[in-house]
Amino acid sequence: MEQGKAKKLRDRILQDAGDETLEIVREGEAEAAGITDEAKARAAEITGRAEKRSVDEASEHIRRQISIRELDARKALLAEKGKFMDEAFEKAIDAVRRKDVESGYALTRSLLLQEIKTGDEEIILSPEDKKAAGASFLADLNKELKSKGLKGEVAFTEETHSARGGFILKSGRKEINATYEAMLETIRDDVEIEVSDVLFKEAK
Questions:
Q1: Distance, CA of 167 to CA of 82 (rounded, Å)
Q2: Mind listing the pLDDT tens digit for each residue in 149-163?
Q3: Architecture in CATH of 104-200
Q4: Are 171 and 121 in contact (CB under 8 A)?
Q5: Most CB contacts within 10 A, which of 100, 103, 117, 189?
Q6: Full strand arrangement of the beta sheet holding 166-171
Q7: Taking the CB of residue 189, how many other CB atoms lie within 10 A of it?
Q8: Per-residue model confidence as pLDDT tens digits over 10-29
Q9: How far is CA 134 from the centre of its chain?
Q10: pLDDT band at residue 1 under the 50/70/90 scheme
Q11: What are the extents of the domains in the chain?
């Protein structure tokens, strides 16, 4: 009888130990599965971030390339606009000069009358204008200056300028640059926007 009780007790201990062992194994498996799942999730998260970073980096690279291309395009457009603007102002100078020559230097005369203050200043012209205007231009100019109460003794200098029309007026050490290029340069900033609107309104 005692041996039977001992056997039952041994079997119970073994069963309890087996059950506990099984539970430990099951808990271990569950924990291992949890760790595996967590590791997988962590790996997926890291992979996802890496992929997102790669996508973000690719997107940023594309964005930078687009910005560079847009900047290059704007620069090219501005360069072309600059060329057109230069051509427009060059044509303006040519047109004014042509009109001035055809009118017998009426514009030059009008500008001189505005700038001459004493009547004994010196006028610097281009070689072509100096030859074309001649002595009669000076005589008529001095006559009008005298009628205004000025000395009427202005003269051409031996010196000439290389601009396309207009003049440089000397009074002692003071000079007034009224060549067409110089005058156009002083007003270019003011009129450039208006000229640009006219030239490129269709493009807008």
A1: 27
A2: 999 999 999 999 999
A3: 2-Layer Sandwich (3.30)
A4: yes
A5: 100
A6: 155-156, 122-124, 166-171, 174-179
A7: 8
A8: 455 445 444 554 555 555 55
A9: 47
A10: very low
A11: 1-102, 104-200
